[in-house]
Amino acid sequence: MNLKRLVLLGSLLLFTLAFLTGCMESYTSFIIYENGTADVTFTLIADLYMAAEESEVITYSLRSSIMELQTGYTYEKEIRTVDDYDYVYHTFLSKGPVDITNHEYITFVQNNDGTYSFIMDIPKMVESVTEDTDSLMFSVDITLPGEIIEANTTYIEGRRAVWSIYKSDLTEDLVLKAIAK
User: Fold this and answer.
1) Neighbouring C-beta atoms of residue 25, cutoff 10 Å
2) Residue 11 contacts by C-beta under 8 Å, 6 or more apart in sequence?
3) Beta-sheet strand order (sheet of 148-151)
4) Residue 64 burial by CB count (10 A; 0-12/13-18/19+): exposed, middle or buried?
């Protein structure tokens, strides 16, 4: 199974359960190299008391049904306390760089002027949101081969940019963009 199918299946499972419980979010990190490969980390974060069981079901479903997760990723589970709340973190970390150049939702290229462009398309996932519109659903964290000079996010630090995607953002197509030199 390739990376795009893995991301799509994982996203569908996560968003379905996250919308049902409202007590989970995910974090995806890409450390992208010049050759179009990336170290990928995917973390599902669940409230220990409100959604731990659901998060166990999701991670088991992902691990048991996606062969690439079994062979190409390590899995770790830990409980962390953040601001006096307990959370369970389920983390999948690629065992080596993953090719992202053939990804349906990600475009990464080195331009003729030597800059690097990163674009991630996030399709509309819900028709409308009437409650919990400010609930954080997931974050996307990228590190590019050069210093980021432009991105459509407020968090840019050196080679790194982070986007926070809220429930209300998912009512329309989103495009995450960054340019590095």
Assistant:
1) 22
2) none
3) 106-110, 116-122, 174-180, 148-151
4) exposed
Residue for token digits 């940019």? Answer: 161
In the chain, the amino acid numbered 108 is: F
d(CA 112, CA 21) in angstroms, rounded, equals 46
Confidence of residue 181 (pLDDT cuts 50, 70, 90): very high
- Model pLDDT for residues 100-129, shown as the tens digit of each residue: 988 889 999 999 999 999 999 999 888 887
Give the β-pairing of 148-151 and 106-110. unpaired
**Beta-bridge partner residues of 81:** 86
pTM strictly above 0.90: no
Among the listed residues 4, 54, 13, 15, the one whose alpha carbon sits nearest the alpha carbon of residue 137: 15
pLDDT at residue 38, rounded to an integer: 96
What is the β-pairing status of strands 98-99 and 116-122?
unpaired
Residues 88/46, Cβ–Cβ less than 8 Å: yes
Q: At 9, is the secondary structure helix, strand, or coil?
A: helix
- With 80 as the cut, is the pLDDT of residue 12 above it? no
